[in-house]
Amino acid sequence: MVKLGVLISGGGTNLQAIIDACQTGYLDAEVALVISSVPGAYGLERARQAGIEQAHLTDDTDILEALLDHEVDLVVLAGYLKLVTQPLLEAYPDRILNIHPSLIPSFSGKDYYGLKVHQAAVDRGVKVSGATVHRVNAEFDEGEILAQEIVPVLEGDRAEDLQQRVLKIEHQLYVDTIKKVIQNLGE
């Protein structure tokens, strides 16, 4: 069984989708550790309620040590707002994933997170948005794209409306992509 380390900074809705997928057996994995860059992030409470060890850590050396101590095989970013640095990238080559709430390369990179992404899409007048799962590298949202799903931007949409539609597909897209990555780890 693959051990996941999930890095968060907020509420943890993607974390919850991953926990649920592990508990139902959809993912042949367990969440071994949840680390938040923000103290008191609700995602830590989600982990606690699921009986998963959790920690607030901000230094990548400390994060790496915790992941290695928990024998984590795959690192999953779920609303993690920090740039992953070289120590983590070297320890987990091609084994760090992220989901971004747009169709990369649009509305991605530094400072594009949360509602800001959706507001930019609405302001620009695009007709479609969506979500992208990608491998993590040394730049924000620049790694290899593994999966994308499109969501329409409707006339009159507010950023909050678009955010809710993207979130509806985001959880399943991420879990499905994690499943494929886990299957490929064994090959």
UniProtKB/TrEMBL annotation:
Active site: H100 (proton donor)
Annotated positions binding N(1)-(5-phospho-beta-D-ribosyl)glycinamide: G12, T13, N14
One Pfam family in the UniProt entry: Formyl_trans_N
EC id: 2.1.2.2
Enzyme class: transferase
One cellular component (GO) term of this entry: cytoplasm
Record GO biological process: 'de novo' IMP biosynthetic process
Keywords associated with the record: Purine biosynthesis, Transferase
Formyl transferase N-terminal domain location: 3-178
Site (Raises pKa of active site His): D141
Binding-site residues for (6R)-10-formyltetrahydrofolate, renumbered to this chain: L81, K82, L83, V84, N98
Catalysed reaction equations from the record: N(1)-(5-phospho-beta-D-ribosyl)glycinamide + (6R)-10-formyltetrahydrofolate = N(2)-formyl-N(1)-(5-phospho-beta-D-ribosyl)glycinamide + (6S)-5,6,7,8-tetrahydrofolate + H(+)
Pathway given in the UniProt record: Purine metabolism; IMP biosynthesis via de novo pathway; N(2)-formyl-N(1)-(5-phospho-D-ribosyl)glycinamide from N(1)-(5-phospho-D-ribosyl)glycinamide (10-formyl THF route): step 1/1
Domain of life of the organism encoding this protein: Bacteria
GO molecular-function term, one example from the UniProt record: phosphoribosylglycinamide formyltransferase activity
InterPro entries in UniProt: Formyl_transf_N, Formyl_transf_N_sf, GART
Name the record gives this protein: Phosphoribosylglycinamide formyltransferase
Gene source species: Atopococcus tabaci
